[in-house]
Amino acid sequence: MNVRESVIQHFETQFGRLPDYVVRAPGRVNLLGEHVDYNDGFVLPIAIDRATWLAFSANGTNLSRLIAKDLNQTCAFTTDSVVNKSDSEGKPLPGWALYPGGVCWAAGEAGLACPGIDACYSSNIPRGSGLSSSASVEMAFVLAWQTLAGWGLSPMERALLGQKAENDFVGVQSGIMDQFASACGEEDSILVLDCRSLDWRTIPIPANYAYIVADTMKSRHLSSGEYNKRRADCEEAVRLLSAYIPGIKSLRDVDVETFNNLACNLPERVEKRARHIVDEIQRTIEAIPLLEAGDLPAFGKLLNQGHISLRDLFEVSIPELDIMVHLAQHIPGCLGARLTGAGFGGCTINIVKEEFAPSFVASLTESYQTVTNIKPEIYICHAAAGAGLD
User: Fold this and answer.
1) Among residues 37, 178, 215, 279, which one is catalytic?
2) pLDDT digits (tens, 9 = 90+) for 260-269
3) Which of 35, 48, 74, 220 is most buried, by the most CB atoms less than 10 A from its CB?
C-alpha cells in the first residue's frame, strides 16, 4: 500500500467516510543557491518525487480536525483559537500543527475563509532532512482550503501564503524557495527563481545524470534559532555596507569585487556570512548557462565550492554532512556533492553520471556506515510536478 492509499484508508477509519479529495504536495531539493532566497538571490531547486498526501473533506462546521498519521497525533482548532496558537480547548498547538494552523492564520490575515475541514495527512519526506517537509505540509493545506473555499490563488500566491505562515506564525525567517518549489515544480525540470522579482522559468534536467540525495540521518530543527541568527547577520551586513553603497537593499546588490574591497569594514562573523551569500549568488548565476548547456562536470565543481563555503563561512554544516560529502566526492562517477537545505543536519545532493548511480549508492551507503556507524538513506530523485489534486 502506497502513501496515498494508506492516508485514504486512515481517513476512512478515523472519520467513518471516504475523503472527498486528496492533494499531493512535493518536497524539494535545492541544487544550488543556499541561504540566498532571503537575500534576494537566485535559487535552483527541483520538486522531488517524495511528498505529503492530504486526504480531506469539508465538515460543515468552524472546527478543523486534523490527523498527523505518521505521528499518530490529532489536533482540532477553529479560526478563532488558532490566532492564539491554541487548539479548540485552549491548549497550545503541538509543533506539527503549527504548519496547518499557520496556513489557517495567514489565510485569515489575507481575508480568506478557512471552512472547517476533516483532514488526515502522511508523508514519505523524512522530517528534519532538509527536503522541505514542512513546506510540503503548508502547500498541501493551502491547496486543500483553496479547493473548499475557492480562493483562486496562483501557485506563486499559494507559496507566498505558506511563507507568511512559516515566517510569522511558526517563527522561522525562511525565504520563498521551499514553498515555491513545492507549489510550482514541473516534471523533469529545474526551477530558476529570482527571489527578488519572483520571476521564474525552467530548465530541462540534463539527461544521463542522476541526482542522488543522501540522508545523514541527523535531523535538524530550524526554529531553534540558528537559522534566524544567520539571517540577522546578513541583515547586519547590509546595514553596515549601506554606509558605502547607497541604496543597497540586500546582499544581492553587492558584487564580488565590491564586497572584497569593503569586507574589512565588517565584523569577522558578519563578514564570513555575507561572503558566503555574495559568492553563492555569483555561483548560481554562473551555474544557469552550464545547466542549459548540459555541462554537469563544470556544474558539479560549483557544488563542491558551495559546500566549502557553507561549511567554513556560513558554518551550517555538521561532521556527518562533511563526511558524507567527502566520501561521495571520492567515489567514481560523482561530479559534485554538497549539503542541501539549511544545514545543521539533513541531506546532501550528489550529481552522478547515470551509469555509475547504482554503484555510487552502494559504495556511499557502505562507506558512510563504516565511518559513522549510522546507516544512511540514499535514493535517486526525480523532478516532479508541484502541488495538485491527486
Assistant:
1) 178
2) 999 999 999 9
3) 35
